[in-house]
Amino acid sequence: MTTSLVLTVIGSDHPGIVNLLSDVAQRFGANWAGSRMASLAGQFAGIVHFEVPDQNAKPLAGALHGLVSSGLHVVIAMGDSSAVQAGQRIVRLELVGNDRPGIVRDLSGSLARRGVSIEELHTEVVSAAMSADQLFKVKALLAVPEALADDELKRELEALATEMMVDIDLEANASGTAPIAG
Fold this sequence. Notes:
- It is flat, with a radius of gyration of 19 Å.
- The protein has 182 residues and is of the alpha+beta class.
- The chain has four helices and eight strands, in the order E-H-E-E-H-E-E-H-E-E-H-E.
- It is 25% helix and 43% strand.
């Protein structure tokens, strides 16, 4: 049997962080099952999912916590290896609009009120092609309850888009297996 460990890692960005994590995992027979990583404002930030033999879960967790001496702060949680829950479907969302505070709050609040879970979220601020304006972009994979019809979700998000003055596109029946970044 195996145990799923999900960890967050943060520390000053420098070459070798991923190698360090993978070396520690390998020592305990862990399989690197998934990850999302980025360098943000000079900090390395990552989320990693390891599958590790049950008897090695606690020793691996201890070794990962020991990486604080390398300048990495690690938080570990026991994971669940199941994918999207029964009764849900994956929908891809893209949003683009002028950058302003509150976009993620407004979007996530609207989704939460409808029982929609954000499975993946990628955001970035980019310069508009024809002006000096800053555009805020969101790409997300959503786990939508089967009871919430696509057209109902679309109407709700179109109303939100109008209120927020952004463009929102939805793609039903999206695959949740590929990362959405980029």
